[in-house]
UniProtKB/TrEMBL annotation:
A Pfam family that the UniProt record links to this protein: Cofilin_ADF
UniProt gene name: coaA
Protein name: Coactosin
Membrane-spanning residues: none
Domain of life: Eukaryota
Gene3D superfamilies found in the cross-reference section: Severin
Classification via InterPro entries: ADF-H, ADF-H/Gelsolin-like_dom_sf
Length: 95
């Protein structure tokens, strides 16, 4: 995965983890239909319910959610790997 350490992705990750920022999720997608470059698709403050409105079943995506004290779940952090609809099972590669 290329681009996972892009400044905007790292900044969004730190914002989600920060107690001083209301951002509680981030969504990463592949930049192009072919290739392995990742890009930050979206961030938000509305928890899992907001994140689910941003998921695109035509893409393989990754999400990181901070559910601490947000009423979504018991306290914790969640990493989501979404494969595209009709895609092959993940086996370390892009779905």
């Amino acid at each position: 995965m290329s681009g996972a350490n892009a400044p905007e992705i790292l900044a969004a990750y730190e914002a989600v983890r920060s107690d001083k920022d209301d951002t509680n999720w981030l969504l990463i997608s592949y930049a192009l239909a072919v290739g392995d470059k990742l890009t930050l698709s979206s961030t938000g403050t509305g928890g899992l319910s907001e994140l689910t409105t941003k998921l695109d079943p035509s893409q393989a995506q990754y999400a990181y959610v901070d559910a601490r004290d947000k009423g979504d779940l018991e306290e914790g952090e969640i990493v989501v790997r979404l494969r595209k609809a009709g895609g092959a099972d993940y086996n370390g590669g892009r779905g």
